[in-house]
Amino acid sequence: MNDLHAVNTILADHLRIVLVGTQHPGNIGAAARAMKTMGLSKLVLVAPEKAPDRDTLAMAAGADDLVERASVFASLAEAVADCRWVLGATARNRRIQLEPLHPRDAAQRALVAAAAGPVALVFGRERTGLNNAELQLCHAAVHIPSDPAFSSLNLAAAVQVLSYELRCALLGDAGSAGQSRTPPPTAEVAAHAELEGLFAQLADTLDQIDFHKGRAPDSAMRKLRRLYLRANLDSADVRLLRGVLADTQRMARIAGEASVDKKIR
Q1: Is-contact 137 80, C-beta < 8 A?
Q2: Quick one: 167 and 206 in the same domain?
Q3: Which domain holds residue 198?
Q4: Per residue in 2-24, is it b (16+ CB within 10 Å) or e — as a string?
Q5: Alpha carbon of 60 to those of 53, 67, 124, 225: distances in Å?
Q6: Span between the terminal Cα atoms of the chain, in Å
Q7: Which residues belong to any copy of the tRNA/rRNA methyltransferase SpoU type domain (predicted)?
Q8: Is residue 86 helix, strand or coil?
């Protein structure tokens, strides 16, 4: 039992709740309280509109330590740079076509991924949620199946629901995870920052070889991101792919220089 407790403590330590662009300081405290009741302790704030204040601590109701230890980042990309899996909480369909997960399945998969390293569960702004650029940084999306006739959940309530599912998964009460297109990450899966470096180089390479032929690149990049994220690339995979892209860029430069020389002659 002690061994199981130790394992669960390590896994819980790898689970972080990320609040993006929080507009009301009290909601930070309420979210911290929701987390602490479920044994979670890693709170991350991304560009909050207002810093935590007296309202935050009042709403935390004893979870002041989570607020005081919370990490603060200027961007979501920085906040999840070391993560092995990033899950975006969203209330509606977006143009970013992420794999949709039920909260129970999401919690089970988050727990498996946490064995490999840090996992982030990301929540957006109270009024508008996560924007498309932020969702694009996520591996999958989770949607709380609330009543369509009155589907609005406040931020802390959403954090409470998903923290509860994570708690159940940690305690082994949630049952087996549902079937998913994407297998959970392994211990060797590449960190988020490595993948973002790959995607940035891929975008540059596609531009250099005129892959898009004048079409908007966003659609192709969204599909390519999903394809690579489903593959659960490890660091060696990323290095190999970036090596291929580097050679592609080099050949594109040589071809471009040859074309310029030909025109000059």
Answers
A1: yes
A2: no
A3: 192-264
A4: eeeeeebeebbebbbbbbbbbeb
A5: 11, 8, 19, 37
A6: 79
A7: 15-164
A8: strand
